[in-house]
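Record type: monomer structure entry
Structure origin: computed from sequence
Chain ID: A
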Amino acid sequence: MAQVQIMSVVGSAVPASLRELGLLACWYLVRDGEPVSGPLTSLPAAKALSQQLINGPFKA
């Protein structure tokens, strides 16, 4: 079973649109090394979405 992991990025790796809002970090969900979410603006949001993917109706 593939695991969903949370990856954080900081500094220049943060998309420009988020840096313009003053964010210096963002989070992505990845599965098997591939992003499965766009940039998320908080770790709690990333954790909540991760739980939804893990517990969702389409578990693999």
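Annotation 1: The CA atoms of residues 25 and 38 lie 13 Å apart.
Annotation 2: The beta strands are 4-10, 25-31, 34-35.
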